[in-house]
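Sample A.
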Amino acid sequence: MKYPSVWRKFINGTAYFSGAIACVIALLLVMEVVLRYIFRSPTSWSLNVCMYMLCYMMFLGSSYAFQSHGHVAVDMIRDFADRHDKSGKRISRRILACIGYVLASAYLCTLVIGVWRLFRRAVMFHSKTVEYPMIPQWLIYGPMIVGICMMIITCVFMILDILHGGDEFM
């Protein structure tokens, strides 16, 4: 199965959305600097809002990092596998890539379970953040769950692509 182009476009869209969030964060921080140091009237909310937006940006943009090889890979191990693979088919590199993506998926599955528990507890108890503005915590955990699930789906598509002979994600 080739890596689905529809999924690639969707992940690219979330990357653009993450970039837009980064621009909004930058504008809010510039606004805060101007208000604080020129007008001597800082806001009480902008830093906290920027932290939450940074969390959204990170989790919604991480699938794009997987898809575009932006996450850290251990090149030394891949190079070692290539050096000892005399067949020219790069089978060992294919196996190592699959193992790496399976381990990443396993880690992401445990992470999404933990965040889901926090999300469920926040909804059940109507928890809000302690600082101003008091935002319902489920609004913070929700995008984390979405982003982690997107990373898991991306890993699964990458594994399937590798198993079906693709070389893009090795």
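Sample B.
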Amino acid sequence: MKREFSPVLLALILVAGCVTFRLLNNAFPDFVPNVSPLMAVAYVGAMYLPRRWGWLVGPATLLLTDLAFLKINALTDGTGSMFSWWTAISFVLYAAAGGFGIWLAQRKALVKIIAGSLACSLIFYVAANTFAWWSNLAVVVTPGYATTWSGWWQANSVGLPGFVPTWHFLRNAMAGDLFFAMALLFALDRGFLLGHAPARTAPRPA
């Protein structure tokens, strides 16, 4: 790929675009529920950034948006609540997705990128619902999940009665992550996406 932007400028564009989208999504949640470009930025964006810090773009975007939400919450309801153990876990998950993208960049194939995107969505989904199930063990929540493996399976399949089944979020996340992954590939490496470039790329600078 011939870069049109320097790596730093590309990273800033990805972060700015993702932050803007997440803030708009937070303001209008019914417009695109449970869809965000953040995983695609962490996963695909890292493929086209230097190995030394490309894996940090997704986690950095997460922290920037959480800081923005923290400020918004403080101004609107006075709570200022946003950071949690889940923020820390999400940081690790997005960093791992970035590392996976960097590893995959040296052996790129479209089917591998698609499979990787779906895998990242699934891992994040299971981690999020496992955290919700675990939180019910640590903090009494009513109604909540049973403190058994059947309760864990419920958290990862149908969710709580009276709410949208949790598998809907997996469907939306997979579709959204894959859409944004393909959109980023089209923007950053059109030749590869359209089959006009070799699958293997030269090692990128650290």
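B remarks: The mean pLDDT is 81. The CA atoms of residues 106 and 201 lie 6 Å apart.
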